Amino acid sequence: FTSTCPFLFISNRPLLLSEDEEDTKRVVRSAKDKRFEELTNLIRTIRNAMKIRDVTKCLEEFELLGKAYGKAKSIVDKEGVPRFYIRILADLEDYLNELWEDKEGKKKMNKNNAKALSTLRQKIRKYNRDFESHITNYKQNPEQSADEDAEKNEEDSEGSSDEDEDDDGVTAAAFLKKKSEAPSGDSRKFLKKEDEDEDSEESEDSEAWDTSSTSSDSDSEEEEGKQTVLASRFLKKAPTTEEDKKAAEKKREDKAKKKHDRKSRRPDEEEEDNEGGEWERVRGGVPLVKEKPKMFAKGTEITHAVVIKKLNEILQARGKKGTDRAAQIELLQLLVQIASENNLGEGVIVKIKFNIIASLYDYNPNLATWWVPEMWQKCLDCINELMDILFANPNIFVGENILEESENLHNADQPLRVRGCILTLVERMDEEFTKIMQNTDPHSQEYVEHLKDEAQVCAIIERVQRYLEEKGTTEEVCRIYLRRILHTYYKFDYKAHQRQLTPPEGSSKSEQDQAENEGEDSAVLMERLCKYIYAKDRTDRIRTCAILCHIYHHALHSRWYQARDLMLMSHLQDNIQHADPPVQILYNRTMVQLGICAFRQGLTKDAHNALLDIQSSGRAKELLGQGLLLRSLQERNQEQEKVERRRQVPFHLHINLELLECVYLVSAMLLEIPYMAAHESDARRRMISKQFHHQLRVGERQPLLGPPESMREHVVAASKAMKMGDWKTCHSFIINEKMNGKVWDLFPEADKVRTMLVRKIQEESLRTYLFTYSSVYDSISMETLSDMFELDLPTVHSIISKMIINEELMASLDQPTQTVVMHRTEPTAQQNLALQLAEKLGSLVENNERVFDHKQGTYGGYFRDQKDGYRKNEGYMRRGGYRQQQSQTAY
Amino acid sequence: KHNAHAQGVPLRRKMASRKEGTGSSATSSSSTTGAAGKGKGKGGSGDSAVKQVQIDGLVVLKIIKHYQEEGQGTEVVQGVLLGLVVEDRLEITNCFPFPQHTEDDADFDEVQYQMEMMRSLRHVNIDHLHVGWYQSTYYGSFVTRALLDSQFSYQHAIEESVVLIYDPIKTAQGSLSLKAYRLTPKLMEVCKEKDFSPEALKKGNITFEHMFEEVPIVIKNSHLINVLMWELEKKSAVADKHELLSLASSNHLGKTLQLLMDRVDEMSQDIVKYNTYMRNTSKQQQQKHQYQQRRQQENMQRQSRGEPPLPEEDLSKLFKPHQPPARMDSLLIAGQINTYCQNIKEFTAQNLGKLFMAQALQEYNS
């Protein structure tokens, strides 16, 4: 094994160098060098991987190592198997066996690692068979080889530095060559990562240095101690955290000591370090030049032309691959600074600002990503500044139709003309804002922070609106109005609401209140903006959106009739299916809001009708753009999903789905329960609300009925109570703490809604009661009813009268005694059944006779139709007969 | 209904093995084989093998107990009847229930269970010969395909077997309702052929009235038990509840009407199906006829031209005859409707009687 001793060739070197055939010789030696270096590099990587238990990496590197060894075969044949090679093989095998035994650790390992582990273990077992004798040899006296290896390492670096110093000329070149060659191989990525890896590498080094330093200090005296150190190294494979820490600390100490050692012992080493450091610094510096880019050469006179030229230069890079977009923005900002410093006039600044904003928008390469807050803030500031300039200089004309050529940026005599469209910028800004909101977790503080920016967005839109009202075309005004509307329609105007509640004669209000109430009501504002759009807009889309927002706003503020009339007048219900999805979502939102509004007004039927479409689909969430359904995820591809994601409504615009469902179910209950009671025995009764029936059935299927928990359970329980005419229980199920928290408190006028609801429940319960139990009564006094349902007499009277008029209740009112006298004309359950049976039998007979007809051969043609008609008549008569018979026999 | 069907399938399977059972039992008791042989002789003459069913009180009580413990709502309980045939009288002396099997123990072997049961009963010297089966019913709805199939396989294997139908609801109202049914020999023949086409049924001259025959039932107790009953009647502290006289009838009537209506609906559908079939066949007939005529004309023309006539083609291949709908189901439905109607008739007649009685009483009192 002496052949691997580094002394040999290093000491040989100067001798060989001096020889004539140095070139060829050196080639041979450098080949060996190269091979071995390759091997050691690989081994180092493996050791690193071992340390972080990255078995996959180990496997990779081991395979490379095997290959490299194969390449080095010729040298190995000559020189014998290198010690360090045997060492890594033995170590790796031990390491793997240890890992293999460690069941716990194996379980924790990820799949790839576990797989790699078993593969590697098998491979190394097979591989090591060839080196069996070497390995046993090594295992018998590991310290020696480790020693040697370390020594070799040490000597290697020493040698190379020595080399550097000793023979400057040829060897230096050779060294450099080698250096530049080495990274080109496998270790290139290793070198690249040097910055981060340095630490680990060094610690790895320290291991080597550690042993080496002791060994060099006291050659073979402390064999025992070294062995323990070595043992601890091996044992450290699965350390507990504490041990780990200690070890790390020790290592650090070692490192420090080592450094110290190194410095004190070999001053030349430092030099090499320095050299290396310098070299590294240069490498790091190349990609990012942190210096401020120089715009103009010093001393250049800054004129319009120069600035514009520079601007164009910068803009040329825009959109090209490899352009650093952040740097571009910075450049532009610098340019603005320069321009303003040199008083180049507002025109240029406006022009550059436009471009800054445009490049800000460009910053994100695709539509799906959104801005980081800093970018957003920058954009807002920029737009604000731009607006400041535009307001301050009314002589600047801005427009997208102004051609580049006809721009006038500096001629102060004429009005300044700048190409660019402030409206587009603002619209884009608004979209970006929506995007930010869509992509922020709605339950985080971050969302609130973002939401605070909404005021800024609104302010900007307002400014632009004012600006455009002066200068823009009607079309532009319409567009900016729509933006304004979109930021207004969903907000409940508490101030106006307050003002409504407190009548205007209360002039004793404080000044502050007055100030607070400044500004027009959002209702007035909406009215004004929408009317303008209705009158002036020529694109259908803006008008549709405006109408929908207007309706939504009306509905939100409980102006039901205005909202309804607007909806009916617009005929949107007929052609909304041709609109694009975002408008459809807006339409759905509007319909839902309309339904909720109707409910607040106590118009259950209207509420039910408005909500029916949305609720019956079971996809309310999707239809309102408030989330994607998981179930249809597999049905759409990535692209569609992205598009749908972009359509989502930001969280602060959401309509509470539970509230929506509750409103729907409660109105369905108020409609359906009396209806069910009235048509108990009707075979052909239809369902008013499938959804509601579904919920009822779900409730019935429950094997054990506990107290209601969810909103749905509450409604189902209430429905059951209502079926019995028990309005008090019904009331307590619908209005209680839980439901208040979940639903009712969400309304602006919660108490009003609750009172309305109680009254509705009382009325409908009364109706249900009368339907269900009228057959039990001969007569019932209205006073009793009014007591039972806590309704006043006139109400009871009117409800009963209505029922009698509608022929729902067969009864008459006895005025003097205030009683309802039942007529008992409706058939009993049996009679009803008998009637149904008779009907069925009729059809059966008809069918049967058709078969008979067929046999008779009178098939088809005019004659049969006539006969059919006749038979129908007869059937009817017969049925009548049955009815009489039945009612006689039942008693 | 579904449940009954599920029970019916294993029954058939069981009956296949039942034959071996009779074989083995025949060697053990010669008297029963003699009786069976006699029954067979009678059956051969076209008459029914059994003229009367005599049931032990024990059996009745066991059936009632079985339903009360396991049956509920529309669920149906079933069991095996044991006994022997004496002349033209079938004596049912014991029974045991089929265990209620659930889906999760699918490997439960019913045949094994029954054989085991019968063997055990023989060990304690109880009649162990299979003479039929019993089933509970829900408002008299028992005329089903499952019952037909089961009873057919029973009667096929053991001539004299009967099915006892127990109506728990009527029983609860105060009148024990237990009926023994057998398939008529005509129906047996049709079932053997397994041909339920309209023609076959027509040929067999089977109508819904002639599907099942009811066998009169006698409930018999041993003298010892009779004595005990007398003894108990005196001591019994339970007040006589005359549920028989209850005037409330609407519920029962309503339920029956509902069921009747469902069957009528089914019947209606069946008729529509049949109608469609008729129409289709006649349409096809017409097409066939037209085709034949065209062929004939063409042949005539060819003949006049001196050409050879076209080869005859298989018409049945060209016009595949439509599959006629099986009539058995409609027959069964009709049978069921008939049962319902009789139930209702009986029920209303009784009720009318009760009402008149109540009226008379009231008049008398006032």
User: Could you tell me the radius of gyration of chain A in angstroms?
Assistant: 45 Å
Whole-number mean pLDDT of chain A = 71
Poorly predicted ranges of chain A: 1-27, 145-229, 234-240, 265-293, 505-517, 860-891
Portion in strands of chain A: under 5%
Alpha-beta content class of chain B: alpha/beta
| Largest β sheet strand count, sense and barrel closure of chain A | 3 strands, antiparallel
Kindly report the greatest chain-chain contact and the residue count on each side: A-B, 20 and 21 residues
Helix fraction of chain A?
over 70%
Assembly state (oligomeric): heterodimer
Strand order of the largest sheet of chain A: 3-5-4
Overview of this structure, please?
The complex is a heterodimer of chains A (891) and B (366). Chain A has 891 residues and is mainly alpha-helical. Chain A has a three-stranded antiparallel β-sheet. Chain A has a two-stranded parallel sheet with strand order 1-2. The longest helix of chain A is centred in the N-terminal third of the chain and has 30 residues, at 22-51. The model of chain A is unreliable at 1-27, 145-229, 234-240, 265-293, 505-517 and 860-891 (pLDDT under 50). With 366 residues, chain B is an alpha/beta fold. Chain B has twelve helices and eight strands. Chain B has an eight-stranded mixed β-sheet. In chain B, strand 4 (130-136), helix 5 (145-157) and strand 5 (162-166) form a beta-alpha-beta unit. The radius of gyration of chain B is 27 Å and the shape is elongated. In chain B, 29% of the residues are buried. The A-B interface holds A 828-830, 833-834, 836-837, 840-841, 843-844, 847-848, 850-851, 854-855, 859, 889, 891 and B 250, 253-254, 257-258, 260-261, 264-265, 267-268, 271-272, 274-275, 278-279, 282, 348, 352, 355. Chain A: Belongs to the eIF-3 subunit C family. Chain A: Residues 136-284, 500-520, 863-891 are annotated as: Disordered. Chain A: Keywords: Cytoplasm, Initiation factor, Phosphoprotein, Protein biosynthesis. Chain A: Residues 178-194, 239-256, 864-877 have a biased composition (Basic and acidic residues). Chain A: The modification Phosphoserine is found at residues 18, 145, 887.
